[in-house]
User: Which sequence fits this backbone?
């Protein structure tokens, strides 16, 4: 994944993307287009050596150069020349512009032209961010419709084609002519995905398995890696359907395989994809279950028609089997056999489609995996459990971050702090890691350490309202009252729609006025 | 939602018991006259009039509706068929006017109010920002996007014209929404029509004629904005803090307000009448209302008589029974932005379904919930699943016959029992009464078996068997009350204590605590069930259980 895509986006910042409320920019507002596709508009922005300073009433925020795709600043200052030659030219009344010296009128003319071009570009981006003006492009296997910025989309387009090729080669599938290309709808953010895609809050993406077949997902700026994983996962349901378009793969192994292929990695240089990596988020969930003493029973998992654990424990089973010399072949035979084997008892599903019920899945699994009796099942189960405990390990910064966040979520703060520390030591540059670690330190009353973490989070992602709110709160606790209140107000400028924050600011303002 | 409710596809709205987070600030329903179809509907409170298509029906709003000022439903159905899935759906085009009062929209934020009696009321005012925000938060008919947007003017009033397409994951078919938002000095009026995409051409001229008919008219009085809890309603104390006598007083007061507001909010085509212990708002025929009330009254009487020992000093609030003319009217009524009242039962005249109509069953089960909640809320919440699901099914399918209650078995229950017997999956009573939440629903026929078990107990010849239900309920109530008293005592003792409970200091201790926490719910549930079981069946031998099981299985096979 390209570095620029790992930049985070505060959801709160959505309010800056449109001319609305108190942040409404004037017609001549400066504009930043970030590499994650966001468009930021403010009345005053200023170039700096390290980036562009965005001015707010309660402070200024520096957006670093490497996060900016395009900057449209109406009053960009003329850089000052340092050398003697520069000074000489300046004395003649010339000014520099993109490495050349010219008359101020010429510079203004070029600058105006450049600004007009960039404004047009920004307008185009904005225009296409509406679903009614969405981009459409057909590739070899897919018909894409998208509202994300083209420079964000291109990476995912290439990835999808590479993914298709890799899966098709392993599982020997072809796109039937009568189905045509798969329609893929790619949205700018979760809110738009939920609204236009017609799904509830918890859904990250979906594949519509009846005609018209369709894949829907969104770009998560907070977690672009998740976007990729969701895309792989949902696209895999389509690829599974291509095994036999008249068959709906049962929840297990469908979700387990989709998760297995969800852990794929694309190399934009070689345009190749590698599959079957460690899905560290899922592994964390499984390890949490194990820590709580919940070991999954193989029979229960295979016999149950639908269960959440098909995503977590199911993935570990698919990973174990696909990485085993003997079992891999048998597992693939089992999956294909569910679609084609005449000995498998199928039941009808939606329309003309058929599927297999849990009990039959288990029976057929035992048959193909050559598990003759309960003892053989238990032996395989033990091998699988051992594989999870001994072979599947989260070691990357990403894995440690996910494990830490999961520990924090389920109320294991001591473990979470250790894992966050290890993630940071492993080189994490994820602002959420610093933010969440800071949160835990604040809970322990270690406000000075927490402040450092929040400041680091802000340095990595300078437009996140919540980071400023936490920093402000912590500063207030640390007796830095004025700075704390200012940070909270800055947070409110970034997210004026948060009534709880507005209330907190109001209360702290009153406290400060009273001298409390 | 129980499995039966799910299977019948009924959309039930959950009702919040404690109103701490409130949406908007404006109660819309003033008493208003119904316009004749095709004629102007006038709203003098907000100062507008608009025509509805000829023949469309005016739909009543909930007394708590704060945003939708007007709703009309088409008299004709449209149909959508999906060739791929074989699914088909019926849809009735709908027109509504949504009102965005500037002063209300601006009032976002947190309100904290101390009532001076120890209760701090925190309210979040989170009104819809505008029409699109309203749609985002309330529309549930499928994925939608604005397909066209235009600015214009009508008779000097600025208008934003939206065309919206509903295309993805729409289970009632692709639709088109046409909305004109009229911007006035202090209010935005969104006049919205929703039709099936396939029928859009058919309705187009009607839709645009009505949109163009929108006019501003003088208001009867100045618009006032009322903040939540200040003037619109009274705040009541948490019932747990009151004595039975105080609770009765408070419930009667709340009941009076609820009845008054509900009666005020209906249009003049509705009949408002006190029938038995219900306030009935009726839009169906009088005979049907009488029948519905008769069934519910019989249930109420049966509960009073048979479960007299449950919360004997508690007052059961008189519910509002709203009977819509048909399902469409009920659906349209429910599709507003109000959560409704937990003491209001909304149903419709289910023509042609006879005495076993699901609507009677729904009214009966809602009444059972209200009765149990009023008599002993803690016990109602703590009821094991076999008892809760079983009673709902038994009383849901019971019907009034003369002055008494007749218990009936419906096909849903009968088929499920047959299937269980055939598959040899009947659960023995000893196991049934000990099932926790997760294990109860592992078998999809458990609710049916629970109902059959309760019927078996109620009809039993043996005195001992007949006593099971009452003994169990009495013991359940005792256990719940004792635990509540103990917890209250602990809460009192801990009041003012600032030191936190012992926290794990190491990762190992934390792991151990985590493991215990994960097991805690099931362990607590098991312990509770065991306590009630031991008090009720403590002296039962295996032989007693075998005999009961044998008789019960015989009764259902």
Assistant:
């Amino acid at each position: 994944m390209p570095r620029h895509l790992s930049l985070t986006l505060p959801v709160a910042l959505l309010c800056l993307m449109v001319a609305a409320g108190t942040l409404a920019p004037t017609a001549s507002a400066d504009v930043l287009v970030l590499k994650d596709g966001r468009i930021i508009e403010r009345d005053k922005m200023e170039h700096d050596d390290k980036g562009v300073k965005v001015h707010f009433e309660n402070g200024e925020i520096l957006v670093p150069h490497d996060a900016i795709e395009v900057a449209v600043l109406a009053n960009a200052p003329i850089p000052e020349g340092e050398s003697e030659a520069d000074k000489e030219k300046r004395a003649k009344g010339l000014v520099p512009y993109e490495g050349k010296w010219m008359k101020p009128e010429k510079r203004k003319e070029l600058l105006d032209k450049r600004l007009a071009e960039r404004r047009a570009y920004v307008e185009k981006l904005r225009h296409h961010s509406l679903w009614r003006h969405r981009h459409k492009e057909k590739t070899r296997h897919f018909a894409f419709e998208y509202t994300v910025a083209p420079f964000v989309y291109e990476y995912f387009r290439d990835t999808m084609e590479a993914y298709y090729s890799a899966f098709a080669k392993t599982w020997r599938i072809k796109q039937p002519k009568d189905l045509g290309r798969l329609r893929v709808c790619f949205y700018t953010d979760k809110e738009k995905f939920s609204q236009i895609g017609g799904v509830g809050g918890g859904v990250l993406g979906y594949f519509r398995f009846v005609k018209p077949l369709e894949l829907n997902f969104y770009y998560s700026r907070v977690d672009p890696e998740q976007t990729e994983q969701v895309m792989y996962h949902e696209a895999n349901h389509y690829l599974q359907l291509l095994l036999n378009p008249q068959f709906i793969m049962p929840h297990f192994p469908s979700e387990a395989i989709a998760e297995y292929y969800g852990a794929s990695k694309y190399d934009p240089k070689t345009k190749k994809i590698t599959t079957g990596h460690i899905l560290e988020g899922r592994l964390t969930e499984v390890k949490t279950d194990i820590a709580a003493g919940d070991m999954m029973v193989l029979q229960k998992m295979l016999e149950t028609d639908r269960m959440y654990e098909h995503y977590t424990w199911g993935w570990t089973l698919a990973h174990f089997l696909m990485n085993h010399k003997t079992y891999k072949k048998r597992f693939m035979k089992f999956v294909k056999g569910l679609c084609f084997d005449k000995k498998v008892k199928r039941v009808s599903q939606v329309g003309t489609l058929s599927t297999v019920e849990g009990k039959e899945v288990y029976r057929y699994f035992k048959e193909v995996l050559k598990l003759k009796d309960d003892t053989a099942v238990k032996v395989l189960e033990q091998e699988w459990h051992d594989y999870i405990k001994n072979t599947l390990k989260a070691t990357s910064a990403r894995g440690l971050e996910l494990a830490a966040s999961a520990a924090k979520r389920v109320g294991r703060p001591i473990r979470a702090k250790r894992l966050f520390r290890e993630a940071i030591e492993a080189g994490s540059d994820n602002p959420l890691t610093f933010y969440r670690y800071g949160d835990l330190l604040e809970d322990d009353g270690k406000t000075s350490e927490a402040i450092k973490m929040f400041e680091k989070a802000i340095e990595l992602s300078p437009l996140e309202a919540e980071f400023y709110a936490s920093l402000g709160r912590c500063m207030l606790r640390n007796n830095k009252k004025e700075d704390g209140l200012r940070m909270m107000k800055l947070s409110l400028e970034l997210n004026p729609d948060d009534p709880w924050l507005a209330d907190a600011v109001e209360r702290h303002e009153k406290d400060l006025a009273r001298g409390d | 939602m129980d499995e039966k409710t799910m299977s019948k596809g009924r959309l039930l709205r959950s009702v919040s018991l404690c109103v701490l987070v409130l949406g908007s600030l404006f109660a819309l329903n003033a008493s208003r006259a119904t316009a004749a179809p095709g004629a102007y509907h006038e709203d003098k409170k907000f100062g507008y009039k608009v025509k509805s298509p000829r023949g469309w029906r005016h739909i009543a709003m909930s007394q708590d509706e704060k945003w939708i000022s007007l709703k009309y439903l088409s008299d004709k159905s449209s149909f959508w068929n999906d060739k791929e899935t074989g699914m088909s759906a019926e849809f009735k085009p709908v027109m509504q006017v949504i009102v965005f009062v500037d002063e209300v929209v601006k009032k976002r934020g947190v309100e904290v109010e101390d009532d001076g009696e120890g209760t701090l009321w925190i309210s979040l005012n989170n009104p819809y920002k505008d029409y699109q925000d309203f749609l985002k938060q309330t529309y549930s008919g499928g994925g939608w996007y604005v397909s066209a947007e235009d600015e214009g003017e009508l008779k000097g009033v600025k208008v934003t014209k939206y065309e919206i397409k509903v295309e993805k994951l729409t289970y009632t078919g692709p639709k088109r929404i046409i909305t004109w938002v009229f911007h006035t000095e202090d209010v935005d009026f969104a006049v919205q029509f929703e039709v099936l995409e396939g029928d859009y051409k058919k309705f187009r001229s009607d839709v645009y004629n009505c949109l163009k008919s929108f006019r501003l008219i003088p208001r009867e009085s100045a618009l006032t904005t009322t903040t939540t809890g200040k003037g619109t309603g009274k705040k009541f104390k948490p019932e747990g803090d009151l004595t039975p006598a105080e609770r009765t007083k408070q419930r009667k007061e709340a009941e009076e307000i609820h009845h008054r507001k509900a009666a005020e909010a209906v249009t003049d085509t509705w009949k408002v009448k006190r029938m038995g212990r219900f306030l009935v708002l009726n839009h169906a025929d009088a005979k049907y209302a009488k029948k519905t009330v008769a069934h519910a009254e019989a249930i109420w009487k049966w509960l009073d008589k048979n479960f007299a020992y449950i919360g004997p000093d508690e007052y059961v609030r008189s519910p509002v029974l709203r009977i819509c003319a048909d399902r469409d009217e009920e659906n349209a009524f429910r599709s507003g932005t109000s959560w409704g009242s937990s003491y209001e039962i909304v149903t419709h005249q289910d023509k042609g379904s006879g005495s076993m109509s699901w609507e009677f069953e729904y009214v009966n089960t809602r009444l059972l919930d209200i009765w149990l909640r009023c008599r002993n809320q803690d016990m109602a919440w703590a009821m094991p699943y076999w008892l809760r699901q079983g009673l709902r099914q038994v009383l849901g399918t019971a019907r009034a016959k003369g002055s008494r209650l007749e218990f009936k078995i419906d096909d849903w229950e009968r088929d499920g029992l047959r299937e269980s017997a055939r598959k040899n999956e009947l659960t023995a009573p000893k196991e049934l009464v000990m099932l926790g939440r997760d294990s109860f629903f592992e078998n999809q026929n458990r609710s049916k078996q629970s109902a059959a078990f309760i019927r078996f107990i109620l009809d039993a010849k043996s005195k001992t068997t007949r006593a099971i239900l009452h003994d169990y309920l009495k013991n359940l109530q005792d256990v719940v009350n004792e635990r509540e008293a103990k917890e209250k005592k602990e809460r009192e003792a801990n009041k003012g204590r600032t030191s936190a409970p012992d926290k794990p200091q190491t990762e190992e201790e934390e792991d151990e605590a985590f493991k215990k926490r994960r097991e805690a719910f099931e362990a607590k549930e098991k312990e509770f069930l065991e306590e009630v079981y031991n008090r009720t069946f403590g002296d039962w031998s295996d032989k007693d259980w075998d005999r009961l099981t044998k008789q019960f299985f015989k009764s259902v096979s």
